[in-house]
């Protein structure tokens, strides 16, 4: 028979999980409190972590403007199959969230993106971004360095550079896939940047883009800088359906 303490703890856990809102939200949440980490927090393979809508950040700060950082500069490091839910990522970190394998991000909010908000490094499979949002990103929000698919649904972003970028000059390149469903963006340079020459594909549907471009195509490389080859959907590397750019 469960003790009263065990029952209360179980009910509290169920209540916390029930509050995960992965619907499209366009108002940034107010954190319940702030937790500053001296080092990156690792979520083990297959495990889940509920951030309880606290703001999670680094102290001292690991943000160095647009200088490329590594795993040690992130707030959360997710191993294969890990899930992170209900967290606000603060401004004093360089890399936000790093996924070493496939991961799931539920209701995660980035208040002021430094270098990248989240980086995906999986070798195969699909990572999911469900709900949440990001703002104030000079460059990229979601950086896809590994292989496989990044699937984004019900995400909100404002005042950003690129919502998503398939790595343009990684030493090992892949044909990457990305999908966007019910995404709303205000004031972005572009939603997605993909490498058409490497077999990337992205699909964008049921979304609203205000003062933002839909997609840019690049010639991806393994060294040096990629070059832009197109500034609009081509129906192949970048396909769209029911995307509005005004009146939404």
SSE layout and pairing:
Layout (H helix, E strand, L loop, with lengths): L3 H15 L15 E4 L3 E3 L4 E11 L17 E3 L3 E8 L7 E3 L3 E8 L7 E3 L5 E5 L2 E12 L4 E5 L2 E11 L10 E5 L2 E12 L5 E10 L2 E7 L7 E4 L7 E7 L4
Parallel strand pairs: 1-3, 2-4, 3-5, 4-6, 5-7, 6-8, 7-9, 7-10, 8-10, 9-11, 10-12, 11-13, 12-14, 13-15, 14-15, 14-16, 15-18
Antiparallel strand pairs: 16-17
Sum up the structure in keywords.
248 residues; Pectate Lyase C-like; 1 helix; 6% helix; disordered N terminus; Pectate_lyase_PlyH/PlyE-like; Pectin_lyas_fold; pectate lyase activity; calcium
Overview of this structure, please?
- It catalyses: Eliminative cleavage of (1->4)-alpha-D-galacturonan to give oligosaccharides with 4-deoxy-alpha-D-galact-4-enuronosyl groups at their non-reducing ends.
- InterPro entries: Pectate_lyase_PlyH/PlyE-like, Pectin_lyas_fold, Pectin_lyase_fold/virulence.
- Keywords: Calcium, Lyase, Secreted, Signal.
- Its cofactor is Ca(2+).
- Its EC number is 4.2.2.2.
- The structure is a single chain.
- The protein has 248 residues and is mainly β.
- The chain has one domain (41-244): Single-stranded right-handed beta-helix, Pectin lyase-like (Pectate Lyase C-like, 3 Solenoid), CATH 2.160.20.
- The chain contains one helix and 18 strands.
- Strands 7-9-11-13-15-14-12-10 form an eight-stranded parallel barrel.
- The longest helix has 15 residues, at 4-18.
- The chain is globular.
- The model is unreliable at 1-18 (pLDDT under 50).
